Amino acid sequence: MTDEKMLKIFGYNVKKQREKINMSIKELSNKTKIREKYLIKIEEGNAKGITASKAFMLIEALNSNAEELFKGL
To answer: Does 63 have pLDDT greater than 90?
Structure first.
């Protein structure tokens, strides 16, 4: 699987989880301290260089787990 495909799947999972808990991009940004524009890029699968620390901030802020956000990878 290509990096591009993995980013698309991860981004889709982030957006799906965020919407599931009715959280806005702005709320997620406030919880994670990740800029809204970057969060949008993550959800679109266009963010390069997502670090493990950012992934774990998202997991925590979305009340999720790694299995959910990395599902399909």
So the answer is: yes
